[in-house]
Amino acid sequence: MTREVVAYKKRWYKINKTVAQFAGCYDQASRNIRSGSNADDIKEFAYNLYSTNYETPLADELGVDSSVRPQGSNKSKRKGKGKAQMSEDFSEKKSSVVKKLSLMEDIKNVREKELMDREKEREEEREHRAKIMAIKEKELQIQAAMKEQELQAHRYIKEMEINAKEREMERMAKERERKMDMQILNADTSTMSEKRRALHEIACEKIIAKWFT
């Protein structure tokens, strides 16, 4: 017996078993069908019984001619719809995830911008404080320089006053000395002795040399 013959026999046993099972379902459907039903209703009921009893759709190659879609096909259709629904749900979830990621990216960008703005504000505040400190330091330097100038002016005035007093004292001393010398020059020599008159003449010569030469 060739392999081809063996294959045909196995195929026939399978088809024969399926046909016998469907025939039983068809016979049961014929007995339980309601009045007013036609042949298509019987076949549809038979298909439903077969799918329910054996949980397998009737194969198309069995040659069952029916305009009614077997229940297995309905299951396949529902399965296809389920896959389509799952694909649609997946697309919606994917779109939702993409939107969330985009929103998170936007939030991240906003936070980064806020951090950059805060850092910029802090930097500007530090620069402003540094400028204020520099201005205050300059003001302190100016105040110190003005105070030093004031002290120097005070010392200069004090020195000028001291010098003026010293010059005044020198002038007064010279005035007293001149007055005394003038008294010596104008002294009456008629009552002086010869010796004293000689000394007076020497003193007068010195006074004249000091004041008039």
What does the model show?
This protein is 85% helix and 0% strand. With 213 residues, the chain is mainly alpha-helical. It has a domain at 3-68.
Radius of gyration: 69 Å
Poorly predicted regions? 63-73
Span between termini: 175 Å
Percent strand: under 5%
In one word, what is the shape? rod-shaped
Which range best describes the helical content: under 10%, 10-25%, 25-40%, 40-55%, 55-70% or over 70%? over 70%
N-to-C SSE string, H for helix and E for strand: HHHH
Count of beta strands: 0
Biggest sheet overview: none
Note the main attributes of this structure.
213 residues; mainly alpha; 4 helices; 85% helix; No apical meristem-associated C-terminal domain-containing protein; coiled coil
Write the layout of secondary structure elements.
Blueprint: H1 3-32, H2 39-54, H3 71-185, H4 194-212
Short description:
The protein has 213 residues and is mostly helical. The protein is built from four helices and no strands. The protein has a domain at 3-68.
